[in-house]
Design brief:
By secondary structure, the chain is mostly beta strands. The protein has helices spanning 2-18, 20-24, 378-381, and strands at 26-27, 33-35, 40-43, 60-62, 65-71, 77-82, 89-93, 109-112, 115-120, 123-128, 134-139, 148-151, 154-162, 168-176, 182-186, 200-210, 218-226, 232-240, 245-252, 267-269, 272-277, 280-285, 291-296, 306-309, 312-316, 321-325, 332-337, 346-348, 351-355, 362-366, 372-376, 394-396, 405-409, 413-418.
């Protein structure tokens, strides 16, 4: 009898050990996980007191380790590079022109090799991600756009010049990643028919290097012109760098409207262009510019945008809903739970992760079914009044048979969780 009791105890302990995740996870009445034990947490404030700190729009990951905004023991902003395995600080950086919050806000960035560059107004920064040392920093004569794209071993950035019309227009500059030196790269063919109240005749909104088509050195360029009554004409073209010619240009994405701007750099997938312009997602052929489909929504995609992963187009709309579309037809596959003013989405192994601005919770949605599987509540993890920030959500693939990691930030800590799958 004693041997039997001992065996039962051993089996019970083994069962508890194997089902640790189920015991520690907390579910709501709908079966959604609302609290999890973290693999590690790392303080974002050396003083252990809350201080206002910067914001990263997109996840910055290098060799599976992550860069996050933080503050030092005096409450001054800095960025820290965290070890993916335990959250320990590898290095920290605070070599800015002035100690202002904006210098640490990173909305657009470019990583080429081990170098990270970003732009804040007239201030350009480049740091070595291996060592955390400053590669270069430049205070430029004019403000430049924070949007940065990569092109071969250069970065592309957008800024104003005075054109032949005498008015300002935004053009693309090519930047040397080793020195930060800029040279004029590309101008769009603007009509100059109307001048905005800001004395501007148009902008380049983004450039995508199309490396999946082997028919030349091609760039997809989005650009816009102002129209009367604050309307905006949004266009795109395909530029051949080798021949310095436009294959086509001035193709209209959507009809002119005050909310017709392209909110994020378009995505090129399977020789098609996908863009969110105002309340609309459109799909065009890359080589011809012909529209294949468009789908209108109740609101725009300003904060979260959309992604295309594993052949699935997933868009987080400001109507508070998450949509999966068929990239071929634009048809809605499912409609799921989203959240307003949310972070950008991150994707790994069939799951979409984001922080809801209207909820303050870390959401995870099964991309195949649209089912919400996580809605993690920071109050249950950290305490009263805690919430996850709409800073970028970091996803790090696992090694071997291990699950990946998901890192999200509250106002006090970076939390690392085992991924849903």
């Amino acid at each position: 009898m004693r041997k039997l009791n001992f065996l039962c105890i051993v089996l019970f302990l083994l069962a508890v050990s194997c089902s640790k995740e189920n015991i520690l996870d907390v579910y709501d009445d709908d079966g959604v996980i609302i609290s999890k034990e973290s693999l590690w947490k790392s303080s974002l404030h050396a003083s252990n007191n809350f201080n206002s700190f910067a914001f990263f729009d997109n996840a910055i990951i290098y060799k599976s380790n992550i860069l996050v905004p933080a503050t030092d023991e005096h409450g001054k902003q800095l960025v820290i590079f965290l070890n993916k395995s335990n959250g320990a600080i590898i290095w920290q950086w605070n070599d800015i022109f002035a100690n202002t919050l904006a210098n640490y806000n990173i909305s657009g960035f470019c990583i080429i090799g081990n170098l990270l560059t970003w732009q804040i107004g007239a201030r350009s920064y480049c740091i070595n991600l291996e060592s955390g040392s400053t590669m270069w920093k430049i205070f430029r004569e004019k403000n430049l756009s924070y949007e940065i794209d990569s092109y071969k071993n250069n970065f592309l950035i957008y800024g104003p010049i005075i054109g032949e019309s005498g008015y300002e227009e935004y053009i693309a500059f090519k930047g040397n990643i080793q020195t930060g030196e800029l040279t004029e790269f590309l101008r769009s063919n603007l009509s100059g028919e109307f001048v905005a109240p800001t004395s501007e005749i148009g902008t380049i909104g983004g450039i995508s290097y199309i490396n999946e088509i082997q028919e030349g050195d091609l760039l997809l360029v989005t650009y816009s012109e102002p129209l009367p009554e604050w309307k905006n004409k949004m266009m795109f073209g395909l530029y051949d760098v080798e021949q310095s010619i436009w294959i086509y240009e001035r193709e209209q994405l959507v009809e002119p409207h005050w909310n017709a701007g392209v909110q994020h750099t378009p995505i090129v997938f399977n020789e098609r262009i996908y863009a969110a312009a105002g309340n609309t997602i459109v799909c065009h052929e890359v080589m011809t510019g012909n529209q294949k489909w468009r789908r209108d929504f109740p609101n725009d995609f300003l904060f979260s945008g959309f992604i295309i992963e594993d052949g699935m187009l997933i868009a987080l709309c400001e109507d508070g809903k998450l949509y999966r579309l068929n990239p071929e037809t634009g048809g809605v596959v499912w409609t799921g739970e989203g959240a307003g003013t949310s972070s950008r989405m991150s994707y790994m192994n069939g799951v979409v992760y984001f922080v809801g601005g209207s909820t303050g919770k870390l959401h995870a949605v099964d991309a195949y079914t649209g089912e919400t599987v996580w809605r993690l509540d920071a109050e249950l993890i950290e305490g009263s009044n805690a919430e996850f920030r709409t800073n970028a959500v970091y996803v790090i693939p696992g090694e071997g048979n291990e699950k990946g990691k998901v890192v999200a930030l509250t106002h006090m800590h970076a939390y690392c969780f085992e991924a849903y799958r």
